[in-house]
Amino acid sequence: MSDRILIFYGSYRSDRLGIRLAEYLVTAFRARGASPELIDAKAVDLPMLDRMYKEYPTGTAPAAMEALAAKIRAADAFVFVAGEYNWSVQPGLKNLTDHFLEEWYWRPAAIASYSAGRLAGARSATAWHGILSEMGMVVTSAPLAVGGIGKAFDAEGNPVGEGGAAAAKAFPRFADDLAWWTEAARAQRERRDPPY
């Protein structure tokens, strides 16, 4: 069984460069035999959070929210492609994430951070670690951080230059870490029901 990995991306800007990292990750995970799917917050276009998915009576949530809830429940693992905005997280990705809670439980999450500058989204990654842990995910420790995002991938998501080479070099450990936790979590869920 191949790992079903949802790769979340959250920029709403018109000139989005981080999407190239997200596309690279889809390709790279697929090459490893996983079944990745890109979830683009801008394309899903959930409203600003008013009611969480669980707060809708069964069958009454907006169609996009219902479809995404089903995908999250069926996934084995998650990757959050986390751009850094003003030392913190992207509002589009945070808004999408906050619509759900129990759907995330008992699965691993990895964070791939990026920024235009040399810190490679490290502050965003740090913030996301606590957020995702609070939402019931096990956050992996192997980082994938890309600085100078505008020069690290071409328009098709292929690594270029020093930044792209560094990302491609870091990817195997990043993916191995996620795969280990994915297998462990799946085996444990099959062995016994989660405690809540």
Write the layout of secondary structure elements.
Elements lengths: L3 E6 L8 H14 L3 E6 H4 L18 H12 L2 E9 L2 E2 L1 H8 L9 E7 L7 H13 L3 E2 L4 E3 L14 H31 L5
Parallel strand pairs: 1-2, 1-3, 3-5, 5-6, 5-7
Antiparallel strand pairs: 3-4
Taking pLDDT < 50 over at least 5 consecutive residues as the criterion, the unreliable ranges are none
User: What is the helix content?
Assistant: 40-55%
Q: Counting H and I runs of at least 4 residues, what is the number of helices?
A: 6
Our Rg estimate from Cα atoms comes to 16 Å
The total beta strand count reads 7
Shape: globular
Write down the overall mean pLDDT: 96
Largest sheet: 7 strands, mixed
Report the portion of residues in β strands: 15-25%
- The helix-and-strand class reads alpha/beta
* Straight-line N-to-C gap: 26 Å
Order of helices and strands: EHEHHEEHEHEEH
How does this structure look, described?
The protein has 196 residues and is of the alpha/beta class. It is built from six helices and seven strands; from the N terminus they run E-H-E-H-H-E-E-H-E-H-E-E-H. Strands 1, 2, 3, 4, 5, 6 and 7 form a seven-stranded mixed β-sheet that branches. The longest helix is centred in the last third of the chain and has 31 residues, at 161-191. It starts with a strand and ends in a 5-residue tail after the last helix. The model has no long low-confidence stretch (mean pLDDT 96).
Summarize this entry quickly.
With 196 residues, this protein is of the alpha/beta class.
